[in-house]
């Protein structure tokens, strides 16, 4: 096994490490602790946070990439080890080959036969047009009518395994958090449901395509799972990438005033007056041209897709940058009039120190609120951008690409609804939990922030 | 007031120059005319002559910023920057890469765009205010809490789902209206019904939630308590006291969006086959027709600035305490 580290993998782990470090340092601050307690005191907040964590977990598992070592070719016994060209992730291993069971084309959820007719030869050698049986669904069945009984029979041990996993997950938490007054029970309930569903899905999809297959015959459930990484990363990385620029410029504009303020204001008014979708489209198209002209910089298709993805995150960050910058500038203007900043001036503290020690920490709540509020909007935007054709690379699994590929298939007879349903369902769950959580965070940290209808 | 507007308009000029420079850098410096020729011609037909021919045909055979070969004023005017970017200020958009006149196209496509977006906008505001008022009437009850969660859930559904679901349900299953298309006659309402419906429904979650917070902010004011104390009925409080006062923030929040209506709606237009400005942009992006994209960026930024100025004016109009200076 040989690990492969993509740029986006490195960035997402960096982000998670930064967040953990941030909360570790904040844990001693009584005011912040109180506010977080307020967020988690609500059962809804606890449940939403658990769902978000589950999504982030899947995304992280899918970000651990490696290339499998291949068995040495026959008759060759060099010390050299050969690696698979295909890059896999830990998630691929955990889902037990769900992504490797391809069919020819569309098939409905739990179907045993393909969606489209094909010319076949029956036992007598005659040519008939019929729906061919699927390669990887229900092969163990002697009689197709026993399908549902078989599903039920297989569900029982799977759910048992899920419950065992849930108990393993929850017991240590219960032991550690005995005295806590927060509603952990709702988190455990969600964890239990998620664990059972996950184990059930993985074990049933060994024998059936739970959400059917798409045009290329790939398992829709697997594709939806692959979309999790893209969705989570685009929501998190876009904000991360633009954060340093927005914060630096916003704080400087509010603190130094004068020409610095004018320049920063000019910059963000100019950028925000360009219609976002056109700026994104232009930048993505230009980056595509750059990749086409410099093929040497990105040797593999995966690296190409990854570079495109990071460019997309960057440009999404640039378009959403002005709101945060404006908010931070206003807050800094307010703070720099306060007594303790004036006192710091009087003591002769340098500008850099005042900015770092006295002003920046007091704008953290704005950064936090923007981060959680933007997250869901960015996940939704990804789908729209992929539809327009300026989203993530088609080779990279994403909900937007799934929707884009299947949007006209509802008009077929019978309609092909499962690809769309899979993508929309996974996206909806993530965005809903993120929105609910964002609401609670905003209420706790800054009840007065108000956003217009266009912000959503 | 008048002086203020003049000053704001003057302030818009450097911003427009900035937008222009930025798009110019994006389109011509990062992506040089040679690259454009290569991608338009296709890799198969690339020869140095073909590139020169393409550049000459489309007017890209000049220097970017400064023409040392010309004399007098022409050192500046005989450049790509002057020919392609500065002329936008005179609303002279030139021709698209496929040879059509952009100004004519924009004028022709504005009508269908407005025919969809304007009803969506107006009906949407009406529906959202009604829903929000109903929820505010039951404030702090179980119904209110449930409604907020429903709003958040509606917000969390992708816009694409509303469109695809609407087309499937209303047009395909119930066969009430055509799935997509557009007419220029009186029969056009058939084609507009579904896009408007989808647009309104998709906006309820975010819109009604926003109006609810605005109403609640007013409901906590002292004058509302006074009105209740003097014996006003709940309905009178809601409609005579809360609603008119909440209209001020609603108006100022909504006015900024009005000019942008001219840009049409990208997704609705492309899904429903409406020949408006939104689908124009989308087609231009897909065909990599940068002349159109550049013009639309310019129009969009003008409309954005107009929106900001209108917002300031609407403040004074809705609230006489505000004075612009």
Automatic annotation (TrEMBL), chain A:
It is found in: Cell membrane. The chain crosses the membrane at residues 6-24, 44-61, 156-176, 188-208, 228-256, 268-289, 309-328, 366-390, 415-438. PROSITE patterns: ABC_TM1. It holds the Pfam family BPD_transp_1. The keyword Transmembrane applies. GO terms for cellular component: plasma membrane. Keywords: Cell membrane, Membrane, Peptide transport, Protein transport, Transmembrane, Transmembrane helix, Transport. The keyword Signal does not apply. One of its GO terms (biological process) is protein transport. InterPro entries: BP-dependent_transpt_permease (IPR050366), MetI-like (IPR000515), MetI-like_sf (IPR035906). Belongs to the binding-protein-dependent transport system permease family. This is Oligopeptide transport system permease protein.
TrEMBL record, chain B:
GO terms for cellular component: plasma membrane. The chain crosses the membrane at residues 9-30, 114-136, 148-171, 191-211, 246-272, 292-315. It is found in: Cell membrane. The keyword Transmembrane helix applies. Residues 110-314 form the ABC transmembrane type-1 domain. It comes from the Bacteria. Signal peptide: none annotated. Belongs to the binding-protein-dependent transport system permease family. This is Oligopeptide transport system permease protein OppB.
């Amino acid at each position: 096994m040989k690990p492969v580290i993509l740029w986006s993998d490195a960035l997402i782990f960096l982000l998670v490490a930064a967040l953990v470090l941030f909360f570790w340092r904040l844990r001693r601050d009584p005011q912040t602790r109180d506010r977080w307690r307020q967020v988690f005191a609500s059962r809804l907040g606890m449940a939403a946070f658990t769902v978000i964590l589950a999504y982030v977990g899947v995304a992280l598992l899918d970000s651990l990439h490696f290339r499998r070592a291949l068995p040495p070719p026959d008759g060759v016994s060099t010390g050299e080890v050969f690696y698979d060209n295909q890059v896999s992730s830990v998630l691929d291993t955990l889902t037990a080959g769900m992504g490797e069971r391809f069919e020819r084309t569309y098939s409905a959820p739990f179907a045993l036969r393909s969606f489209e007719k094909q010319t076949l030869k029956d036992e007598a050698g005659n040519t008939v047009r019929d729906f061919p049986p699927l390669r990887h669904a229900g092969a163990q069945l002697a009689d197709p009518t026993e399908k549902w009984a078989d599903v039920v029979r297989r569900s029982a041990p799977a759910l048992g395994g899920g419950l065992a996993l849930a108990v393993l997950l929850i017991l240590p938490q219960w032991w550690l958090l005995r005295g806590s007054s927060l509603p952990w029970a709702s988190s455990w309930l969600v964890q239990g449901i998620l664990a059972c569903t996950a184990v059930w899905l993985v074990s049933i999809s060994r024998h059936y395509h739970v959400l059917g297959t798409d045009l290329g015959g790939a398992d829709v459930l697997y594709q939806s799972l692959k979309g999790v990484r893209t969705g989570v990363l685009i929501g998190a990385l876009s904000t991360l990438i633009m954060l340093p620029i927005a914060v630096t410029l916003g704080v400087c504009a509010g603190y130094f005033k004068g020409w610095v303020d004018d320049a920063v204001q000019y910059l963000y008014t100019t950028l925000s007056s360009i219609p976002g979708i056109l700026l994104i489209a232009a930048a993505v198209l230009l980056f595509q041209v750059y990749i086409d002209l410099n093929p040497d910089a990105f040797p593999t298709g995966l690296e190409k897709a990854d570079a495109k993805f990071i460019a997309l995150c960057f440009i999404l960050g640039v378009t959403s940058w002005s709101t945060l910058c404006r908010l931070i500038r206003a807050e800094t203007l307010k703070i720099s009039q306060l007594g303790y900043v004036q006192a710091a001036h009087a003591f002769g503290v340098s500008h850099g120190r005042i900015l770092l020690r006295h002003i920046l920490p007091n704008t953290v709540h704005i950064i936090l609120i923007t981060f959680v509020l933007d997250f869901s909007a960015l996940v939704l935007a990804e789908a729209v951008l992929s539809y327009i054709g300026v989203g993530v690379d088609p080779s990279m699994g994403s909900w937007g690409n799934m929707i884009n590929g299947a949007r006209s298939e509802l008009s077929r007879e019978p309609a092909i609804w499962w690809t769309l349903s899979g993508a929309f369902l996974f996206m909806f769950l993530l965005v809903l939990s993120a929105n609910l959580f964002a609401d609670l965070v905003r209420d706790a940290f800054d009840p007065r922030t108000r956003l217009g209808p266009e912000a959503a | 007031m008048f002086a203020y507007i003049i000053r704001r308009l003057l302030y818009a000029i450097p911003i427009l120059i900035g937008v222009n420079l930025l798009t110019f850098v994006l389109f011509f410096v990062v992506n040089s005319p040679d690259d454009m020729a290569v991608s338009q011609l296709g890799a198969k037909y690339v020869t140095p002559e073909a590139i020169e021919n393409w550049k000459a045909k489309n007017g890209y055979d000049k220097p970017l910023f400064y023409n040392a070969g010309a004399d007098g004023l022409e050192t500046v005017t005989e450049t790509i920057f002057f020919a392609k970017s500065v002329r936008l200020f005179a609303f002279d958009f030139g021709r698209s890469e496929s040879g059509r006149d952009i100004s004519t196209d924009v004028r022709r496509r504005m009508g269908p765009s407005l025919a969809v977006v304007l009803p969506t906008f107006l009906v949407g505001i009406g529906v959202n205010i009604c829903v929000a008022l109903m929820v505010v009437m039951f404030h702090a009850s179980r119904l209110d809490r449930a409604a907020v969660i429903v709003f958040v859930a509606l917000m969390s559904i992708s816009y694409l789902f509303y469109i695809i679901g609407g087309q499937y349900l209303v047009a395909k299953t119930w066969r009430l209206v055509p799935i997509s298309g557009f007419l220029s006659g009186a029969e056009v309402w058939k084609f507009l019904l579904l896009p408007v419906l989808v647009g309104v429904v998709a906006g309820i979650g975010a819109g009604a939630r926003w109006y609810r917070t605005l109403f609640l902010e007013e409901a906590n004011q002292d004058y509302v308590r006074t009105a209740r104390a003097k014996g006003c009925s709940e309905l009178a409080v809601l409609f005579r006291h809360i609603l008119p006062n909440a209209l001020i923030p609603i108006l100022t929040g909504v006015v900024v969006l009005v000019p942008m209506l001219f840009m049409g709606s990208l997704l609705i237009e492309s899904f429903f086959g409406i020949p408006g400005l939104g689908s124009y942009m989308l087609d231009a992006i897909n065909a990599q027709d940068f002349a159109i994209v550049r013009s639309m960026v310019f129009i969009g930024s003008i409309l954005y600035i107009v929106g900001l100025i209108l917002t300031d004016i609407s403040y004074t109009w809705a609230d006489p305490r505000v004075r612009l200076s």
